[in-house]
Specification:
By secondary structure, this protein is of the alpha/beta class. The protein contains twelve helices and 22 strands. Helix 5 (about 185-200) crosses helix 9 (about 300-305) and helix 8 (about 270-280) packs across helix 12. The structure holds MU-OXO-diiron. MU-OXO-diiron binds next to helix 2.
Length: about 400
């Protein structure tokens, strides 16, 4: 059975949801599933905007067939050919062999590299600011390199104001019948997954997202719909979404608050992290979240590190080094280009406490524009009551640094 939604009277969502995939890109958990969005425009010509992941291809083909209702498919615009969207291109070519594929030079190069059978079909290469008319609708193409792959572009329909934004403005989470942002409570139910999607998938490419946002300022008053490749279609509250993207891509925290990420073997480092959290709350800073790095997928830690202004790393020493899972978190923060955060360190070691120096060195040498507070809490196996003044000092230094950043 087909399952489609109208975006406008002649633009249809023909995508599908996947609840069975457990790891997006085979690495990021998606307990709420994911949607792969594709859209069809019925004008004098028929136009498909992107395809879907192979896992939901059958549903997508049924949706497309229903919307076309016997009409041929004239054009297929590929904004992003990564296989979670491009995997069904060949199926479209098998069923609609006369379709013209419109995409960028790099996208066609990558399609060939992935072995997509596009030879013998009509390929139309477009570049920045090219336009194309399909009858009453005219679209313009804008390059969006590295949002999230180098071949990506976005397409803007100047007639109805629909921006087909590729991975930009997407999110994890299946749509489950809802399509528009005003049909969900985004700030309550979706923002954590949207942040986790952005920061882990596109987070590294902040400067490229900033370039795209700057390009969008030229058309922002004409945008009526933002149609991403994952998650809800936006038709209101653009300022909310653009503000999030602007902050994330400038590596500015969304909130003044503290992520405490701890690595604990026998519960002693965890106890110190808990004592620190309690003291912070006692002194009025209640915007504190705590995660055990061993039991939390790193994609959630990354998302929270982008969310908050301060990060406390509390780690046991392991093989005279940083606890491996904490080290992995540090490497992921570096890989995703996180900047502009203030770090505090809690270290633990029973005979040769090294983790604090090593974490500090990693942050100072390997990451950009980070501050490490001078005061550190150092434990020998466990936190003793005689260390309570050191704990108080660390709390005060963290709170002072939050004041300074007002
Ligand atoms: Fe949703 Fe970069 O693919």
């Amino acid at each position: 059975m087909y399952s489609v939604r109208n975006v406008t009277k002649d633009l249809y969502w023909v995508g599908a949801n996947d609840h069975r995939l457990s790891l997006f890109e085979n690495i990021h958990p998606i307990p709420k599933g994911v949607s792969y969005n594709a859209y069809v425009l019925l004008d004098e010509k028929t136009v498909l905007f992107d395809t879907v992941d192979w896992s939901v291809c059958r549903q997508f083909l049924e949706n497309l067939d229903h919307v076309l209702d016997g009409r041929p498919l004239d054009y297929m615009i590929i904004n992003h050919m990564e296989p979670d969207h491009g995997a069904s291109i060949e199926e479209i070519l098998l069923r609609y062999p006369d379709v013209t594929i419109i995409s960028t030079e790099k996208a066609f190069m990558l399609m060939r590299q992935f072995g997509f059978a596009i030879e013998g079909h009509t390929l139309e290469e477009v570049k920045e600011k090219d336009t194309k008319c399909f009858g009453s609708h005219t679209v313009t193409f804008l390059a969006a390199p590295m949002v999230h792959w180098p071949e990506a572009m976005v397409t803007f329909d100047v007639t109805n104001g629909a921006l087909f934004s590729a991975d930009a403005f997407g999110t994890f989470g299946a749509l489950d019948g809802k399509l528009f942002n005003d049909e969900v409570n985004f700030d309550r139910d979706w923002i954590d997954d949207a942040r986790r999607y952005y920061t882990n998938i596109v987070g590294k490419y902040g400067p490229h997202v900033q370039l795209l946002l700057k390009k969008a300022t030229g058309i922002v008053n004409d945008i009526k719909y933002i149609c991403p490749l994952h998650g809800p279609v936006w038709r209101s509250d653009f300022a909310y979404l653009l503000d999030k993207y602007d902050r994330w891509s400038r590596y500015e925290p969304e909130e003044k608050g503290i992520l405490i990420a701890y690595a604990s073997m026998y519960g002693n480092t965890e106890a110190a992290a808990s004592a620190l959290a309690a003291k912070l709350c006692e002194k009025g800073m209640t915007n504190v979240v705590m995660y055990d790095v061993s039991n939390t997928h790193v994609s959630y830690l990354i998302s929270e590190a982008f969310h908050y202004s301060h990060v406390v790393l509390a780690s046991v020493t392991y093989n005279l080094g940083i606890y491996p899972v904490m080290h992995n978190f540090l490497m992921d923060m570096k890989a995703l280009n996180l900047q502009n955060r203030t770090f505090a360190i809690v270290e633990n070691g029973s005979w040769a406490c090294k983790s604090g120096d090593l974490m500090e060195r990693f942050i100072q040498d390997e990451m950009k524009k980070m501050t490490v507070l001078n005061t550190r809490l150092s434990l020998a196996s466990s936190l003793k009551s005689e260390k309570s003044h050191e704990l108080d000092s660390l709390v005060d230094v963290i709170l002072e640094s939050m004041e300074e950043k007002k």
